[in-house]
Design brief:
- It contains eleven helices and 38 strands.
- By secondary structure, the chain is of the alpha+beta class.
- The two termini are about 45 Å apart.
- Bound molecules: 1-deoxynojirimycin and calcium ion.
- The site of 1-deoxynojirimycin has 8 residues, from loops.
């Protein structure tokens, strides 16, 4: 790092390494710090205030700039897994050191990259402030115009929403449509014009702007209040139930507030800015961290066939019974020895590393109700789940069982059990766990995204690293790039996932906006791979229809990259379409390189990726509910080499609603000179495997 220190009393300016992004920082006549940001001469963020108010001290105004420090940094690092095997972290840094008339000290550190900017508050140790109970952060992101935004509603407890496209001026109206499906906390009046991050905005002069945060540690998650008249967005930290937005002990650095910007939508997808703002891996030996391609009994619970996580239905009728062998089994419990054995066989035959088994342990009888009479036990298998037998059987077949820890949001109890739970996993040959936090947090003093739950997530991931366990967390605070620091954090849900295809459906635009928004924080356990998309097929009550063609489900393995990738459908459905299933068997889950070829938020994405472990390339594309013709330019291929392309595409008459299972598989020779027009059906997609021809 090159350092330079300048004594100054006035404004400070800094640019990105390529000079295209310019940042200006100053204090206004009231001594309030503010910044503005431009890209290629166009305003991205107009004058926006900075500061933090705590009960004990207000770091808001009457500041003067004492000094500024500048530095530049350039490194290339190698993630354990991901979309790229190399990531360049190149920025210019400006730290503005300030003092106000009360003697309070606050430094703000800005890092300006070619693809955007991150900044954070750094509160040094000081005489006038020590412990802080945060009232509010005044960080503003004021847009110069009435941008279009893709947002989900503000909510302290869930992010499992569909995105809405709206002008800033219409946000309040646009969010009203969620009335009735909001979680309890969201209904608070205060949140009626609040949105969650990562959000994407597009300006009328063609800039794409992503707002989020990086390295959320020891602090509540940030949502944004929208001022529909001034187009201003302002930080809104999730409070605890007492209304406090974080308890800090100085010195303390807040998470980074991030702004990614480009005039090309593809750059937003390719940006690694959020990872770059996180600390390097704290895990030295990462050899035990392995991406997971897995199957599971999971979808059986969603198809409408009345399958349950619980072993018995009569638990509530017999309060006080703790000996599960005395209960009558309900016969609808997929986590049983025979069934799981079949999944292990199927995984072994088809090259999956893992089998996720949900509903294997005691405690599911009353799990989703507000009474939660019974807590989960993470070392007590149900009587019909013969773990010693399955453990040995899986071992023989070269497959790992994947653990499931649904906590029903009793985070405190999970912390009490966690050592026993993780040791139990190790003793039984598990090395990955899916965690879950369904329902209101118990005890009820926290929200899913308040500081207490952010701390809990940190506790779990560090504990997991100690035990060499990989984690896929559901209903946790949405990711902020911490996968760089803890690469055992393979994935999170933290958005509306594929399961909603059985609960109202995800419109095709949903998977075309997730990569621009939620995925900027880290990979998602979306659960793609549904081949039987019309659930009335099962003839047992459900009429839901996944809003996707079969070919699109293949494309999702490329457009929603994750090192934890499920083939979510039932094995019997894969056996009905073995030629299409071949793609799921082949597709890698970690990459050497990625090239975004075409992209427009909520409309379409086409991406090419190079396998980390071979010279095969893959290309995937999706559209929204409109048909589309992707134009694939294979210029990314090495020159002069021929590739055999196997193209999995929508058939000419395919349509997500009326003809979802119509697909074609064709082969073709392509080189770096090839250009291909590929038709995509409404709600459709395509996936191509490219193998070098020797
Ligand atoms: C919600 C999760 O998203 C889902 O994947 C899981 O199966 C259920 N909770 C039960 O834990
Ligand atoms: Ca969920």
């Amino acid at each position: 790092m090159m350092l330079g220190a300048v004594m100054t009393m006035g404004a400070a300016n800094i640019s990105s390494p390529n000079g295209e992004i310019k940042l200006h920082v100053d204090v206004n006549p009231q001594g309030q710090p503010y910044y503005n940001l431009s890209y290629k001469g166009k305003p991205v963020i107009s004058d926006s205030k900075l500061g933090l108010a705590a009960q004990e001290a207000k770091f808001i105004d009457r500041f003067t700039i004492l000094s500024t420090d500048t530095a530049s940094f350039n490194e290339t690092w190698h993630p354990v897994w991901g979309e790229y095997s190399e990531i360049v972290n190149h920025y210019n840094q400006l730290t503005v050191n300030m003092k106000n008339v009360d003697g309070l000290l606050m430094n703000i550190c800005f890092r300006v990259f070619d693809d955007g900017m991150g900044f954070r508050y750094e509160f040094p140790i000081q005489d006038k402030a020590n412990y802080l109970a945060v009232e509010n952060e005044v960080t503003e992101f004021n847009f110069p115009g009435n941008n279009t935004m893709w947002v989900i509603p503000g909510d302290y407890d869930t992010d499992e929403y569909l995105f809405t496209e709206t002008r800033i001026s219409d946000v309040t109206e646009a969010l009203k449509k969620y009335n009735g499906v909001h979680s309890e906390s969201q209904r608070e009046k205060a949140l009626e014009s609040t949105v969650q991050t990562p959000l994407l905005a597009k300006s009328d002069d063609g800039l794409y702007i992503s707002l989020h945060e990086a390295a959320l540690i020891g602090y509540p998650a940030m949502q944004l209040d929208v001022d529909t008249a001034t187009y201003g967005l302002k930080s809104h930290l999730t409070p605890d139930r007492l209304g406090v937005r974080g308890y800090l002990q100085l010195p303390f650095n807040t998470p980074w507030r991030t702004i990614i910007v480009s005039d090309d939508a593809r750059d937003i997808l390719a940006s690694q800015l959020i990872l770059n703002l996180n600390e390097p891996s704290k895990i030295e030996d990462t050899s035990w961290i392995k991406p997971q391609k897995f199957i599971g009994v999971w979808w059986e619970m969603f198809t409408g066939r009345q399958k349950t996580w619980a072993y018995s239905d009569d638990y509530r009728a017999k309060p006080g019974v703790t000996d599960y062998t005395k209960l009558t089994p309900n016969g609808r419990h997929p986590a049983n020895t025979e069934n799981v054995k079949k999944y292990i066989d199927f995984a072994a035959e088809n090259g999956f590393n893992g089998v996720l088994v949900e509903g294997w342990n005691e405690g599911w009888e009353d799990w989703a109700s507000y009474r939660k009479n019974r807590q989960f036990l993470f070392d007590k298998p149900y009587p019909d789940f013969d773990l010693p037998y399955l453990r040995e059987y899986a071992k023989e077949k070269g497959v790992k069982l994947i653990m499931h820890h649904e906590t029903a949001a009793n985070a405190q109890d999970y912390e009490r059990q966690i050592d026993r739970a993780f040791q139990f996993m190790k003793d039984n040959n598990y090395d990955a766990v899916k965690t879950g936090y369904v329902g209101a947090i118990i005890p009820r003093s926290e929200h899913h995204t308040s500081q207490g739950m952010v701390d809990h997530a940190q506790f779990v991931i560090e504990k997991a690293a100690e035990y060499e366990i990989m984690v896929d967390s559901h209903e946790a605070p949405r990711p902020t790039g911490l996968i760089r620091t803890y690469p055992n954090w393979l994935a999170q849900e933290s958005a509306r996932g594929g399961e909603f295809e059985s609960m109202g459906g995800n419109p095709p635009s949903h998977t075309a906006i997730l990569p621009f928004t939620r995925l900027k924080g880290g990979p998602m356990d979306y659960t793609p791979g549904l081949f039987q998309t019309d659930l009335s097929y099962y003839n047992e009550g459900k009429t839901d229809k996944a809003m996707t063609t079969l070919a699109r489900q293949l494309a999702l393995y490329l457009t929603i990259p994750s090192p934890m990738q499920m083939a979510a459908d039932l094995p019997e459905n894969y056996m009905r379409f073995p030629d299409a299933f071949q793609f799921i068997k082949d597709v890698p889950i970690e990459w050497r390189d990625s090239k975004y070829l075409e992209a427009e938020p909520a409309k379409y994405i086409t991406v090419a990726r190079l396998d980390k472990n071979s010279d095969d390339w893959y290309v995937g594309g999706i559209t929204d509910e409109n048909p589309r013709e992707a134009e694939i330019d294979f210029a990314f291929l090495p020159q002069g080499e021929k590739f055999k392309a196997t193209i999995y595409a929508d058939a000419p008459d395919a349509h997500w609603d009326t003809n979802p299972q119509a697909y074609s598989i064709t082969t073709k020779t392509v080189t770096s000179k090839t250009k291909l027009k590929q038709k995509i059906a409404p709600g459709g997609g395509f996936a191509i495997r490219l193998e070098p021809m020797k």
